[in-house]
Amino acid sequence: MIRIAIANQKGGVGKTTTAINLATALAATGHRTLLIDLDPQGNASTGLGIPNLSREWSSYHLLLGECSVEDAVISTKVPKLDIITATQDLSGAEIELIDFEERTHRLDNALAQAQEGRWDICLIDCPPSLGLLTVNAMVAAQALLVPLQCEFFALEGLSQLLQTVDRIRARFNPALTIMGVALTMYDRRNRLTDQVADDVRACLGDVVFNTVIPRNVRLSEAPSHGLPALIYDYKCSGSEAYMGLARELIARLPQRELAA
Ligand code: ADP
Ligand code: MG
C-alpha cells in the first residue's frame, strides 16, 4: 500500500476537496483506497456522508493507541473506498500526544499493524498547520501531494512546507518524496490565475501535475449532500479534472509500490 499525504499548511487551498475526489477517482478506477481524515474539522468525513454519530472510533483514537486501523475503518458509499474519520477530539491530540513515546510515529506505527494487502493506496487529508498531526502524516507517508490554490500568494508558505519536509527527511523519513503539486481553483476567465499557474510552473517545473483543477461550483456543492463530486455530478468539469489527476498520479507511482 502506498501512503500519500495531502498537505499544505494554508487553509482553504483544496486539500480536502482533493482528498475526497481523488480517493473516489482512484477507487472508481479499481484501486482499493483508504482515506484517513487527519483534520479535526472532519470535513473529509462529512463530505463523504459519514454522520458524527457513526464516528465511534476515529483517527484520534488511532493516534492515541485506543483502537486499531480495523476498528476505525468505515466503508463509504463509494465501492472500494474506506475511511478513517476525524472528530473534534483530534484538536486535543497535539497536546495529549506530547507525553507519548514516539509521538511523531503514532500513525506510522498504527498503519504498520494494519492487515497487509487490504488497500492499494492510502490518502491522508492533513489539517492546515505543520503541527504534530501533519508531522505524523509526513512520517507515515512515502509521498506528498501538495495542492496549491491559483491565487496571488500561491507560493507563499511553500518554503516553510519544504523546510518541514527536509527536517522530516533528515530525522525520520529519508525516502519521503514530493510526488506532485496540484493547481486548484483555476479560473480560465481570470488572467491573474493564468499568470499564477505559469509562475508556479516556471518555479517548480515538472513536479506540477499537468492536470489543473478548475474552480467549479459542483465541487463545493457536493459535500453538503455528503457525496464526492464524482458521484454528485460525474460529468462536471471538476469531476473530470479529478479523474485526470488520478490517472496522472497512478502513472507517477512506482508500480511495485502499488502491488505491495
Ligand atoms: P482545505 O482542505 O485545503 O482547507 P477545501 O478543500 O476544504 O480546502 O476547500 C476550501 C473551500 O473551497 C471549500 O468550501 C471547498 O468546497 C471549496 N473548493 C475547493 N476546491 C474548489 C474548486 N476547485 N472549485 C470550487 N470550490 C472549491
Ligand atoms: Mg481540509
Automatic annotation (TrEMBL):
It comes from the Bacteria. Residues 4-178 form the AAA domain. Signal peptide: none annotated. InterPro entries: AAA_dom, DNA_Partitioning_ATPase, P-loop_NTPase. Involved in chromosome partition. Localize to both poles of the predivisional cell following completion of DNA replication. This is Chromosome partitioning protein ParA.
